[in-house]
């Protein structure tokens, strides 16, 4: 068998097994060495290819797509620095537990470390940020090697999903010539008598669950407590909201629900949900009034820094962190019990075993009353000029049911936390909170929009600028995306931090004003641009964008200093009313 047939059959069997293992989407960045992979992925009837030229943008696009679909997405690039450009998104996928199958083409071994072009060290390029790495064998087409290549493909997809999801990396060395031969018969089929497609079966991977004795011990620890708290941090489990709110209602305990918990929106009961906690937990005296006996947290740590302070000051409370599998996500260093169990089943088991537990009714009512005070201040009043909080509030009120909001880090996600009230609309809120970086926002949102679900990206001017290459996919694939661009001409989050007191260097090092007219970049990528000067403008423009096709960028311009003062005035009003009523 000559080289081209060997290359074609080996690569085709790999691609086919990736598809057989459940992958439906591949994101490809063009290059030469990756030619056989790119062409065979594109030709496979069960896989949809997305061609994103910039590898950094491509990786974040895949990240957003995987978050939205909750299944692994494959990535293909050529050798050299192309693979290095995947790194930021791989770091984010690692920390946010998103399954990706990274496939990097490479020079064959004889062209490594000899000065060949586009040859860098790609062995374990991503270090510990991938769950599994494998250097693929040089292509062969014997029945044994086709079995081998299928095994590695199916194992890669399994490893990306197994336990806590995450990225895996396969390095694929290939020799020239690189063009596959599509005239060959049955290229997607294995060779040899009795050969089958799927070489490994990972469909019987069960979920973790506490044993009966472990559950009894947990309930015993809670039985004599009076003031309990359930905290829901970022997570994506389907049906979790119904399970956790049912448990909270039965026990009579408050739920602190992060916007990324997917608990604030939907048709489940919401009487126990406290969404304004970030506003009133900023005050030390208020935090001291709300000392808990126990805290059960589901998902990662919430966005709220005020909650972090609260947790640090509650070292006396029994703290339980629920993890689907393994993991250590507890940055305060407080004594913590880890419950490794499926969160939905744990809620159901606790209802069955400890549904009779009742906690301090006045404790729940205090949280609910304080939440009502916070919500009244957070949802009332309008300014002469649009504030950042009002812009986010208008967006959340206008965005349609069954849609996704993808929020930038720094101020946008914090404003979503502050101004997203409970709603019957099912609004999925996503953000890249694994590593909390500014990069890749637009590309991630485009990846989420590629599923056809309405997506609104909430971007600051810095996150927008940092990923303008991501707009190309909206033009290329005519994605329906609305971007709310909150332009405060720099890094607004720093106006809330001690760095703001350094007048000499603040603007250059932290404020970092861009002074860019973004409308030209939007037009360059075929999008529609509008500047919303009033709240009526903003609401109308948002509504129009949701009933129109293509990319819509709606810009709101604010002042960083005024924005910080506006936020602080609301927080102060909330604190003063609560302290007056409860002191």
TrEMBL record:
<dbReference type="InterPro" id="IPR029035">
    <property type="entry name" value="DHS-like_NAD/FAD-binding_dom"/>
</dbReference>
<keyword id="KW-0460">Magnesium</keyword>
<dbReference type="InterPro" id="IPR004433">
    <property type="entry name" value="MenaQ_synth_MenD"/>
</dbReference>
<feature type="domain" description="Thiamine pyrophosphate enzyme N-terminal TPP-binding">
    <location>
        <begin position="13"/>
        <end position="124"/>
    </location>
</feature>
<comment type="pathway">
    <text>Quinol/quinone metabolism; 1,4-dihydroxy-2-naphthoate biosynthesis; 1,4-dihydroxy-2-naphthoate from chorismate: step 2/7.</text>
</comment>
<comment type="subunit">
    <text>Homodimer.</text>
</comment>
<dbReference type="InterPro" id="IPR012001">
    <property type="entry name" value="Thiamin_PyroP_enz_TPP-bd_dom"/>
</dbReference>
<dbReference type="GO" id="GO:0070204">
    <property type="term" value="F:2-succinyl-5-enolpyruvyl-6-hydroxy-3-cyclohexene-1-carboxylic-acid synthase activity"/>
</dbReference>
<protein>
    <recommendedName>
        <fullName>2-succinyl-5-enolpyruvyl-6-hydroxy-3-cyclohexene-1-carboxylate synthase</fullName>
        <ecNumber>2.2.1.9</ecNumber>
    </recommendedName>
</protein>
<keyword id="KW-0464">Manganese</keyword>
<keyword id="KW-0474">Menaquinone biosynthesis</keyword>
<dbReference type="GO" id="GO:0030976">
    <property type="term" value="F:thiamine pyrophosphate binding"/>
</dbReference>
<comment type="pathway">
    <text>Quinol/quinone metabolism; menaquinone biosynthesis.</text>
</comment>
<dbReference type="InterPro" id="IPR029061">
    <property type="entry name" value="THDP-binding"/>
</dbReference>
<dbReference type="InterPro" id="IPR011766">
    <property type="entry name" value="TPP_enzyme_TPP-bd"/>
</dbReference>
<keyword id="KW-0808">Transferase</keyword>
<comment type="function">
    <text>Catalyzes the thiamine diphosphate-dependent decarboxylation of 2-oxoglutarate and the subsequent addition of the resulting succinic semialdehyde-thiamine pyrophosphate anion to isochorismate to yield 2-succinyl-5-enolpyruvyl-6-hydroxy-3-cyclohexene-1-carboxylate (SEPHCHC).</text>
</comment>
<keyword id="KW-0479">Metal-binding</keyword>
<dbReference type="GO" id="GO:0030145">
    <property type="term" value="F:manganese ion binding"/>
</dbReference>
<dbReference type="InterPro" id="IPR032264">
    <property type="entry name" value="MenD_middle"/>
</dbReference>
<dbReference type="Pfam" id="PF16582">
    <property type="entry name" value="TPP_enzyme_M_2"/>
</dbReference>
<dbReference type="Pfam" id="PF02776">
    <property type="entry name" value="TPP_enzyme_N"/>
</dbReference>
<keyword id="KW-0786">Thiamine pyrophosphate</keyword>
<dbReference type="GO" id="GO:0000287">
    <property type="term" value="F:magnesium ion binding"/>
</dbReference>
<dbReference type="GO" id="GO:0009234">
    <property type="term" value="P:menaquinone biosynthetic process"/>
</dbReference>
<feature type="domain" description="Menaquinone biosynthesis protein MenD middle">
    <location>
        <begin position="216"/>
        <end position="404"/>
    </location>
</feature>
<dbReference type="Pfam" id="PF02775">
    <property type="entry name" value="TPP_enzyme_C"/>
</dbReference>
<comment type="similarity">
    <text>Belongs to the TPP enzyme family. MenD subfamily.</text>
</comment>
<feature type="domain" description="Thiamine pyrophosphate enzyme TPP-binding">
    <location>
        <begin position="443"/>
        <end position="556"/>
    </location>
</feature>
